[in-house]
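Changelog note: in this version the structure field was regenerated for every chain. One regenerated record is shown below for reference.
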Amino acid sequence: MLDFKPLELKDRELFCEYLKDYNFSTYEYSFLTLYIWRKMYNTEFAIVDDAIVIKKHTSTNGTYFMQPIGAHKTKIAGITSKLNAIKKDNPDFKYLYATSKQLF
């Protein structure tokens, strides 16, 4: 089982390291945004195969993962398999990957 933990201010440097080469065009992946909204979205994260996986939960959307950050192309299938195993055991997951605007 993967070890997801609540997002804390002390995790900023870890996120900055993973996000430094990440070219995102949305505010949702910035540490500041994740941190500010962490309580509303019950934001947690885990390191999975050298990538950060963010897990969120809302009463409207249920539980979902955001796109893994820092995942090498060769590891995406393995990460997705691990996350699908979690989704399978949790009926609160309506879909696997999402952002606030798009479901995958």
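Spot check on this record: The longest strand covers residues 51-58. The domain at 5-97 is CATH 3.40.630.30 (Aminopeptidase).
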